[in-house]
Write a structure and sequence with these properties.
- There is one protein chain.
- This protein is α+β, with helices and mostly antiparallel strands.
- The chain has two domains: 4-180, Gyrase A, domain 2 (2-Layer Sandwich); 225-296, Elongation Factor Tu (Ef-tu), domain 3.
- It has seven helices and 17 strands.
- The strands form three sheets. Strands 8-9-10-7-1-11 form a six-stranded mixed β-sheet, sandwiched between helices.
- The longest helix is centred in the first third of the chain and has 12 residues, at 76-87.
- The chain is globular.
Length: 302
């Protein structure tokens, strides 16, 4: 059996939404169905602009009557501020949960090692907090929002060895998963271009959310023209925001990357032209080799 590892995700934080109206408040705002969230289920969701562009993405966990948002630490205060704009008279309190850190447990059968079914979003209480299978993709492993020392001790007792944040970053890059605003451009990225439908991040049956009409129209009219996906890099790793070229025409842009693997936003028509012509994609001094994810919708990456 492959090694099971865990790492603290230093770039992540936890917010608590408390109050009698916390659930309906969030339900009316975000892309996924908050009614599904409970002691055994977590979801992946986003808050969009009214024009349907990405603002924040996060994992939503159930903690009794309260909700926890596992989000980017650097933008947590900004997320609180944005949610507070919508609060008006709703009976909900929004604050950082300073007692909790975020960790990722990954490797072969990581969910099984923590007594969780290998189902995206499966959750349970763990070390004074919550452990949940990544709602986007079970292969990504298990995320834990809990007090750091208790979580690390429980993970070690379950047979997981400590790793670095960078080790988990390579794991998620290999799967083609985005990492918040490192890969999704604020007020520019269209969520369906970032695979939100394939990664269980949007529910088209839940009813209204901010940006819902534009998102639904993008889906039903087949307006997705770009896709976020893994690329293998032959040569020096380009910096984030480096343009990807097909000849002298821009075909996409590099986002985050490490050790010869990156996530990039690529134009689908450019991929088709590159495949038909055999002409290479380049970024800086490197050649770029797209690796469409096996979990993508049929036809999404071709």
């Amino acid at each position: 059996m492959g090694e099971r590892r865990y790492a603290r995700l230093n770039g992540r934080a936890v917010l608590r939404l408390a109050g009698a109206e916390a659930r309906p408040f969030l339900q009316n705002l975000v892309t996924n169905d908050i009614d599904r969230v409970g002691a055994e289920t977590a979801v992946y969701a986003a808050l969009l602009t009214p024009q349907g562009k990405y603002l924040f993405d996060f994992f939503v966990l159930g903690d009794g009557q309260d909700l926890l948002l596992e989000c980017e630490a650097a933008r947590a205060a900004e997320l609180i501020k944005r949610l507070s704009v919508y609060r008006l008279r709703a009976k909900v309190e929004i604050a950082a949960l300073e007692s909790h850190a975020v960790l990722a447990a990954f490797g072969e059968a990581a969910a099984q090692g923590l007594e969780l079914p290998a189902r995206p979003g499966a959750a349970r209480g763990f070390a004074g907090g919550i452990a949940f299978v990544d709602p986007r993709l079970a292969a990504a492993g298990v995320r834990i929002a809990a007090p750091l020392e208790a979580a690390a001790s429980a993970l070690a007792a379950a047979g997981f060895t400590e790793a670095e944040t960078e080790d988990y970053d390579r794991w998620r890059l290999a799967l083609g998963l985005p990492d918040g605003s490192r890969d999704l451009e604020v007020e520019r990225t269209v969520p369906l271009e970032a695979n939100f439908e394939e990664l269980n991040g949007v529910d088209f049956h839940k009813g209204c959310f901010v940006g819902q009409e534009v998102t639904a129209r993008t889906r039903y009219r087949g307006l997705v023209k770009k896709r976020l996906m893994r690329v293998d890099v032959e040569g020096p790793l380009p910096a984030p925001d480096t343009p990807i070229l097909l000849g002298d025409r821009e075909a996409g842009v590099i986002r985050s990357g490490a050790d010869g693997i990156a996530v990039a936003m690529l134009r689908l028509e450019a991929l088709e032209r590159a495949e038909a012509s055999g002409e290479p994609l380049t970024a800086g001094e490197a050649r770029i080799h797209p690796v469409p994810p096996p979990w993508a919708k049929a036809g999404a990456a071709t």
